[in-house]
## 1
Amino acid sequence: MKRLMLVVAVAALASGCSSMPKVQPWEKGNLANKEMAFDPDTLETRFADHTYFSKEGASGGAGVGGGGCGCN
Amino acid sequence: MRSGKLLAAACAVLFVGVVSAQEVGKPAPVFDLPAAGAPNVRLADLKGRVVYVDFWASWCAPCKQSFPWMNEMQAKYGPKGLTIVGINVDKKREDADKFLTGTPAKFTVGYDTTGKVAEAYQPKGMPTSYLIDANGVVRAVHVGFREKDRDELERELAAALTAAGRR
């Protein structure tokens, strides 16, 4: 009995939220809202990044690719 | 042995929620949706015509890009037997109508506010289009819309019309 409970518990834990209904591609209206974005203002984010990179004398590191050589 | 069965059951739990998407070569699920300024749009009524079903939403940027192309295709191939049906998946119809005032659609638009039809087709992204032949069978599925897709999509449309003997 104990073993059965253990297996059920492990299964429940391992499945996590996967048994919950997934947000489907056609249901992402709310996620597409502006306030849901990581960067609410793209232009401002780029401006802030530019300032940051200039001060550091290196580019990249705040997101995707780009080395630290300061050459790009 | 018993724990083996239990393990299998546990694995089954992990895979709940995996549903198959609409595939090429299978009959397209029928729909009956309220349309903009017209009687309901029904797939069954369109038998004999090549149907291009496009799932779109007001919050989807590439959808906006695809509208002028779909208008163009409807004007060009409509008389040859093509019907474009844009299925809107917004929860609120007002959102869709607001989008349509800025981006007019010169093809049939159906409102799937409950998402039932989207559930049947399982589009993998927004927009997703399904090219359905004259017998109601899915001929091609296309996810997303980019300007460079235009020519290829048009070729597929033309080929479907040729196959249906409508050109």
Note: Chain A touches chain B through 21 residues (CB under 8 Å).
## 2
Amino acid sequence: MSTDRTEQNGNGTGSDAGTGSDAAVYVYGIVPSDVEPEDHARGVGEPPAEISVVRSGRVAALVSEIPLDRPLGTPDDLTAHAELLDGTVTVAPVLPLRFGAVLTDRDAVASELLEGHEEELVSALEQLDGLAQFVVKGRYVERTILQEILDENTDAAQLREQIRGQSEDATREARMALGEIINATIESKRAEDTRRTVEALESFDPMVNERPPTHEQDAVHIAVLMKLDEQDRLEDALRELAQEWENRVDLNLLGPMAAYDFITKSDPGEGG
Amino acid sequence: MTIQPAGGGGGGGGGGGMARPNSSGLADVIDTILDKGLVIDAFVRVSLVGIELLTIDARVVVASVDTYLRFAEAVNRLEISDNEPKGLPDLVGDITSGGARHKTKGAIEAAGEKVSEFLGEVQQQREAAPRSRRRED
């Protein structure tokens, strides 16, 4: 956890990050103005920069200073961005910005990002209050899923006989056909198992974002937005599903994290 | 601004061509923060600073000839191992993977990953690039 929520309000824009022309301000996310970064909170950069806040009215931005002469996007940078926001979501609502948002200076953060959009930002933060995002990822256990497909699909089973012990060159067409069947079958199993997972989480009344698979053996990959304090019950529900799928799907839960998958602004420039 | 699913149709998560191999968890971070979240351009234009971002190839899972051939070979191997007599090799295999699993778990917990795991198995979240064939066997 990297930020504290305090009762203190509207401090102005602070003075600890005067920026020259060779530096700029990296913005992580937007929070209610009573959020205070912990002393040890660190962000992107090498060495990692200290996190501060820029406040304006009822909203604030989590920021840090960065030099402009260094490209962003090392694994440490990416992790720092995510950890700050994911730590924050456990204590306060946060609107996460996509990685890589940089403005010229702190004044620009206050005047351009926060001031003109206060109502809109406050409204979004209110909607997120008490909620957090979780990601559910499942990966098929290869042996199990291949055997399942061979058992269910006679074409696949026949093709398997054809390639048995034969060289790849001699059986290329049969292998292509077999691989295509397997791939297509996994796709339909993925759709079904994703549906099953969403169904298992129905009682949380979550918002669900189906993510595209990141691997050809993905069984399920969804983000859900739900009550943060129901995390224990979520783990129970998924553990139950994981038991049902034992040795067939390796199921993982990530989170709580900021609501990256659920924040959209439709029209650029359209103020609040 | 609305709070609603952003939709999965963005063309897949990022990942892949990083300067160093993904450690467990990093791939998930990449999937999440590079193409999701609020885009600042929607709010701010004047003061936007373009900073160089290290190239990260978008990774889209597209079924390819490679994928098909890999699946076929996996089936071929499946059969071979099915015909092997069970015995010492299996036992050794179990012990080895059990030990490794523990180590993996320890390392991940030490790294402070917020990954809840089920069934006592930590999935090595090694997100292979499309052409990578590295898998655990």
Note: The longest helix of chain B spans residues 88-110.
## 3
Amino acid sequence: MTAAFYVSAAIAVLSTVMAITRADAVHALLYLVVSLLAAASIFYVLGAPFAAVLEVIIYAGAIMVLFVFVVMMLNLGQAATIQERSWIKPRMWIGPAALMAVLMAEVAYVLWASRKGNFAGANVIEAEQVGIAFFGPYLLAVELASMLLLAGLVAACHLGRGDERK
Amino acid sequence: MAGIPLSHGLLVAVVLFALGLVGVLARRNLVFMLMSIEIMLNAAGLAFIAGGARWAQPDGQIMFILVLTLAAAEVSVGLALILALYHRLETLDADAADKLKG
């Protein structure tokens, strides 16, 4: 199981790097799906099978299908890929990557200090426990999430209706 | 099963989050920026799962499900905004939408 964690972590990081550097939106989306599936297997190794299933169904399934749908509706084609390639210059990765490398090194240093005695994933937390906690102490959070989803639905409906004033 | 060191799980989450942030900062295409935000949200969920697994409590997974809800709502609104912006400006360049009254 430990080897599965490191292999999935490597796949997740590599496919995310590929996803953020592609010029073609569909290629990037497919790499992102691979990254999310790798994250799902990390969740499974960490003893969260319910979260792994939700990651596959909602993240890699529903949200990525939404992205693919929008990329299809935009109908970008070859010209957009060429323009995107002109936007991606090696020079412009330097600044953000350097800043993020410094931040990552800081966090890695902090994590290095607490490396002993902390082991995750020794126990499996089943969906039953998650559900009991969800509809017990976290009931208000469920209600708030439903209101958030309703707001998202109304906003997407309103914005997607198009501009009728013109 | 001995499990994974918590710091390794959190390190993967940090690396994924940093990659998403680099994507947001470096890309100009709005679709790619939204994808990078998804990467960052997913990394935050991974950190929650790792923390929940460390203390063997379901709270981490609950926070992950709430992050998932947030990501679904955010991506639906964001993609609707991108479609509206594309129909209005005919481009996906984030720098093109720099006027408040266009």
Note: The mean pLDDT of chain A is 89.
## 4
Amino acid sequence: MTPTDSFDTAVIGGGLMGCGTALRLARGGRRVVVLERRGLCMEASGVNAGSLSPMIKRAALMPYALRSYDMWQNTREWLGGDIEAHRKSGLILAFTEREAELLEKMMRERIEAGAPAEMIGGNRAKEIEPSLADGVILAAWSQMDGHGNSSRTGHVFHHAMTEAGVDIRQGTTVQGIAKTGAGFEIGTDKGDVRAETVVLAGGAWLGRMGQWLGVDLPIGCKVNQMSVTERMPRILSTVVNAQNGLLTMKQPPNGTVVIGGGWQARGDIDMDPGTREIIPGCLTGNVQVAVHAIPAMRQARLVRSWIGLEALTPDMLPLIGPLPGVDGAFVIGACRGGWEIGPCLGEILGDHMLGREPALPLFDPGRPQPQARWAA
Amino acid sequence: MSRVEMRVEGGVIRPDPVDIEVDGATVTAVEGEMLAAALLAAGVLHLRDSPRAGTPRGAFCFMGVCQECLVEADGRLVQSCLEPVRAGMHVTRYGRRP
Amino acid sequence: MSDIAELIVLGGGPAGMAAATAAADRGVDTVIIDENAAPGGQVYRSMPASFRIADREALGPDHAIGDRLRSALESSGARTAFGHRVWSAAHTEGGFRMEAVWSGGRAEWNAGRLVAAPGTTERLLPFPGWTTPGVIGLAGATILLKAQRMLPGKAVVVAGAGPLVMAVAASINKGGGKVAAVADLASPGEWLAAMPRMTGRADLLVRGLGWMRAIRAAGVPVLFRHAVRAAEGAGALEAVTLGPVDREGHPKEGQLRRFGCDALAIGYGLVPSTEVSRLMGAEHRFDALRGGWAPVRDVEGATSVPGFHVAGDAGGIGGAAVAEVAGRLAGLAVARDLGRIDAAGHQQEAGPLRAALAKADRFGATMARMMRPRPGLLDICTPDTVVCRCEDVTRAEVEQVIAAGALEFNQLKQWSRCGMGPCQGRMCGEATAMLIAKHVGGREKAGLNRARVPIRPVPLDQLAGTFAYDDSFWESDAAKLSLNVLPDENQVSR
């Protein structure tokens, strides 16, 4: 092993969480390597629908979402690159009495937690978004909403980390980790790497990574479908969401409309990304909700649907902090809405590892968890 | 603007010409003919402008792949290479910049 | 509409028609699907139903072959779904499911076997001005000439590689049009050297020589070892500049010749259409001499995915004659696998077909070799030339993201938007992959553009159809599957 393969910290997983942590550590003076088996941010970090919608986040995550919202708006300052973030107003729509009831309850909790939103009626919602269908009973409205272009994530972080001196090793597959006295030896298909500390940042693959060090991490996986239309004349001025979460829709400046909402597809962490499959009923379901909310979307043509794997935990909150029982190992990930909330999460773990007081509390990876929904 | 001479004579007998409307102008075409071909014969090559640079574009592949020949026909977006001509159809080059 | 069949054949060209006919003739419940209004594919594309045929001779041999294949299909009893755009091809527990949209709404088919015969797309390598209206594909020109009986322009430059160059030029000439010039990437020597391997299909060889003679006789300038350097025109094509190249397509010093024209038909060969075989997860291999990436298959077209065959050019370029025989072999294999024909009966029919395939394939392979990728042609693409037509991404922008650290096609796509527009990389895919290959050292390393649903753009209107929206909307299996992973506060129905 050469000295060039010896680091203060090895971050395993080059998604947003790993890149954010690596960047913070490198800027704090640490020698950092990022080991990524494919390219940076090619999975969930680079293929999510790009929502910047704090009000659709869980109450416990609200302070993190608000902090990261500002960070995404200022990427030129802290990343030196443009993520194409746009501030817009956003709507969460309820079309039935049942949906209205749930929306009311859900938003009361979130607004108490600081969500910058208010409840409005259908007529007001239609003034805000003239393309909206009739029949909205109740809506939540936030002027602190918007979207970014998640597919640029890898590009801008590659640039920022290069500037900060991070050793970026794309196309490098980690095969295992051994704890050696004060540090770790990490075996990869391109040779071994040594590091004092390791950060596991593997998203949906975190469970597998925990196994390398004999730790069971409670990680489940959502297989989310997203779609985009071809460019079309301006049809949406807001970000449009459905009460139950199964629709997010926005139109970036290029005129395409991105349709998400977490309809499920077929796939798992072992499948080659190219063989994950859209479930036709889920695609048509998603499209139906989209045209129900915005009838003019019927004119659009869908050009591409794709699939991202989203990690989740039984309590729907992230794992950020020391890996239980393994000194010097840390974990970060499994945050619902992780792309939107991610920027500040890398910072807080980085700060913790640098011995600084993080701006917001970590999420103890070893906390007790309820029974997982997906295991039921 | 008709360039009927682009239609090869012999071999086939075409039905009588019909009129279609392209952005308000009357164009002579043949019922059942591929709309993209009818537009080409009429000298209507510039079907849309590219989205970023705004450069002129016309039908390229004539087989449903390139998406360059997208027009609005009777209120629907269609690839004109997959759309047959119907008498009286209204065609709008919706992708052209003003 | 949901329908169950034993075999789905995707694609109504020679391979698809022959596969469906062979299977249906032996009692296999077969449905053949294609987005075109009638069977034929590209080479044997049928003419509009409104055209009355007056002189079959004048239409050339391909029309007769197409009619023969069409009438065999019709009498086979195969069910047909033309005018249906398949947007999803997926595995199911018991086999395969295709979803389509058509003028009547949505349609769905399920079957235990699938033969995909989606054919090819053209290899297009950008040059300055290639986005000018009037610049069209060689295959597109063929379709105009054969199926529409229409000239591509009043004065046409025809350029590129392979037999289509001379075929299109001769066809324009025969149709009374003016060919301004012909540029062929190959040298006369290259054609001569190929001829011994073409004698197995003397009919096709004679036809090709006939094209050449006719063009010469018409006094058309024919420039061998030449490529298009630039096209120009404001709003529509006005002129094309041709220049000499070497064997691999690199532009060479020499006389540039400019020809006034209102159409340029250009194509640098054919590339297998592999969206469906990639979606199915079949194993693929890169073979430059067969057009590039193609599914690995046996002689019956069977891929690495059980029950899934690929026939025709989509499995590697071989041409229409090969496609027909390969389709028949695939259809027979399905009939045998379903027990509609016993091993002996199968052997009796398939044996001669295999011999015919080998013979036709020698010719096809020779043509495919003439149309192989010639990376030197990339040197004609200047930094500010658009590579991705849909998104207006230039060569310089593509190379910037390669320099910035993008490793392969899918990452480059994310970083540059190259290949992200409505054609989904079908126009720029080859050029982009060749550019990446140049920097990373080989097409295998450059990666394969991931296939995505929808296979072709689909109007949301057709996907959504009519439906009622109320709380019961969320009771569908798809909705329940998607809601089940969400926290309780989101749940509409329980």
Note: DSSP finds ten helices and 16 strands in chain A.
